[in-house]
Amino acid sequence: MSSMKQKPLVTLTTDFGVVDGYVGTMKGVILGIVPEAQLVDISHLISPQDVRQAAYVLYAAYRFFPRHTVHLVVVDPGVGSVRHPIALRTPAGMFVGPDNGVFSYVMACEPVEALVELASPRYRLPEVSHTFHGRDVFAPAAAHLAAGVPIATLGPAVDDPVTLPPPSLEMAADSATGEILHADRFGNVLTSIGLLTWDKENLSLVPTFQAGEGGRPRSVRLRADEATVLIAGQEIRGVCRTYANVGHGQTLALVGSEGHLEIAVREGSAASKLNLQPGQTVILRW
Amino acid sequence: MSSMKQKPLVTLTTDFGVVDGYVGTMKGVILGIVPEAQLVDISHLISPQDVRQAAYVLYAAYRFFPRHTVHLVVVDPGVGSVRHPIALRTPAGMFVGPDNGVFSYVMACEPVEALVELASPRYRLPEVSHTFHGRDVFAPAAAHLAAGVPIATLGPAVDDPVTLPPPSLEMAADSATGEILHADRFGNVLTSIGLLTWDKENLSLVPTFQAGEGGRPRSVRLRADEATVLIAGQEIRGVCRTYANVGHGQTLALVGSEGHLEIAVREGSAASKLNLQPGQTVILRW
Amino acid sequence: MSSMKQKPLVTLTTDFGVVDGYVGTMKGVILGIVPEAQLVDISHLISPQDVRQAAYVLYAAYRFFPRHTVHLVVVDPGVGSVRHPIALRTPAGMFVGPDNGVFSYVMACEPVEALVELASPRYRLPEVSHTFHGRDVFAPAAAHLAAGVPIATLGPAVDDPVTLPPPSLEMAADSATGEILHADRFGNVLTSIGLLTWDKENLSLVPTFQAGEGGRPRSVRLRADEATVLIAGQEIRGVCRTYANVGHGQTLALVGSEGHLEIAVREGSAASKLNLQPGQTVILRW
């Protein structure tokens, strides 16, 4: 951490929706503790209790925030049960939420410097309900961390956090087999095949989610225009640079903004046109 | 009020939705008057012109904000008619909006220290439209209050604000009869039966909304596991601590995060499963 | 610009929706550059790639923000193609987004003091994707402008920005013929016939969108109660001051909050009741 005082910054990702006042209430709690905090919504329309979707949305966003940011995530089907509330610190930011795997994709990409259970009553609201830990436990913890409270004072270390299985990604000699992770508002479909980076006409593929057996996964170099994508019984030839490389309504494969293989329809919805769902298999062949 | 300078904080609750720019426009007006203000959205998806829903959502949220917060509420079916724009001050915060009952539930819980009509042209925009008082009257008033303008300078005292009938709650020797107030995004249903607090295996019920005839309503103490909830022709046995106390898809009664009796389905929607609507009767029998 | 240091203020208008984390990601980028910025959402639910709707929503909102505001607009069907990223400065604020006409209505109302292409790599993220210029190009430019970087340093001047045809508005001796611009959440329908201002029982109409042939369009004065509105085969008599001037469920014409002719149904939806769509013709006859 810099010795210079940073402006506290807290992001919020929940499945609380935007009709009820739950998110506003959490913000009231945070600002009661750290009045000068910047608050940024990432999403409050995670599908109810969809921990995996929250993990993906957080993964796509956190790297673009300053390193002193505290990311508060409340997608918590186990509220009131035995699951632990946790906080973790990485070089790319701090994270607060339930220990249910929602930070799995972050932990796959960032070294965890500290991981604690939010056990200290001092950093909770005086009364903790059985049903709204976002307000009573997680928001106060995020606020105190943003205010500069050292993470270790919030509770004891946790050694074995719950983790989701990583997105599937299997590397073979001439192909990578992955899965659909997410369809966004435009119907663009993001997959687990990444990270892909351009180098002139070639693509370099360095598997993110540690698909290799033992040690670092191997990197692959391939010709973009000779690659083929297989998805939902369809074959898409070539990987494009951008939507404008094909005609209106045409399907294309490209490298999405987070460096993953993306399937899109120009000015249309690939999710609808090809009937794509998270979890379906996608193959990149070269 | 503290002598220490507080960071101005304004919350916004409207039925303006999030497609049009109306909320953003109000924020522009506020920040033109008090540039350092923190702005927090509570909800902009109150059902159009549903004053009672707005009153409930505000009621559930305001207590978790700092006491110097100004809560701006614009759910205003009578815009342009004779209804007055008002502001009120309580020990728990200030409130700005139309005099249509939207602050009824707050006023049932907090002493009103001052209540004025927003009559002074000095604290409005120079031109006031007939259709958007949120922008032209309410946002400027909230901004000036947040900036420290004394409430009494905004206009003359109002003695007889419009109030909604309080949520129904009738206490009998062995039961409390109330109504459904709200169904949230998860389909959890909040009722007027509260406040309930846990004391080991027992629940203490202290009616919030002044249901007693004359004087303070009596408090009741009951065994949670022996209580029964009757709702929409269904009987639910026992009041649980949290969702995880029942199996997936099971219906339960519990104490919601604001201390009111709540009906829920674990990882499901009670509103859908039991076909519940605001206004329906609910009985807690002990 | 004032010599006094203003608090940086950036608004955001996109078609990114509120489910994915795209908007949050842009805010992370902005706050990494200008940590003390105020961020205000205008709308993120512009219909996907609907440049004209975005132009209207921005038009209705920008005048109510302080003059040092930077308005960031990302509705960008041409991302990755040859369209230029631009920034412009007017006396009423600065604007950042794609050169696709989204600032047309602003430019019709405000003198453009500077208009540049966002060409300098120094004011972009180090790596620019082909698909998310909101994050990689526009957000950094808006942040640097808000931080006080002079607009001319961002890139070379642009002389011929793309402009949408202005909303149609034809003035005749006894009528004005325009079009529907927008239907809001309430089903209130805003038209291109404006600006209208009240003067006792009369209305003054000064065409905004330069409909005249050569020179300034002429201004007209008319009796509100004698005017007639023709829309979708219906005739509405008189222009009212506010919704409360008619009975529940009645259709009326009035002057909307931005000074344009508006068609509404009291406590109902004119868009639904009369089946109104953007682009349809509306006539005001006097």
Q: Radius of gyration of chain A from the CA trace?
A: 20 Å
The shape of chain A is elongated
Overall mean pLDDT of chain A stands at 93
Helix-strand string of chain A: EHEHEEEHEHEEEEEEEEEEHE
Strand content of chain A: 25-35%
Oligomer: homotrimer
List the helices and strands and how they pair.
The structure is a homotrimer of 286-residue chains.
Chain A: E1 9-14, H1 22-33, E2 38-43, H2 51-62, E3 70-74, E4 85-90, E5 93-98, H3 104-109, E6 114-117, H4 133-146, E7 169-171, E8 175-183, E9 189-194, E10 196-199, E11 202-205, E12 220-223, E13 228-231, E14 234-237, E15 251-255, E16 260-265, H5 270-273, E17 281-285
Helix pairs in contact in A: 1-4
Task: Outline the structure in words.
3 copies of one chain form a homotrimer. Chain A is of the alpha+beta class and 286 residues long. Chain A is 17% helix and 30% strand. In chain A, β15 (251-255) and β16 form a beta hairpin. In chain A, α1 runs parallel beside α4. The longest helix of chain A is centred in the middle third of the chain and has 14 residues, at 133-146. The first copy, chain A, is elongated, with a radius of gyration of 20 Å. The mean pLDDT of chain A is 93. At the A-B interface, α1 of A face β1, β2 and α2 of B.
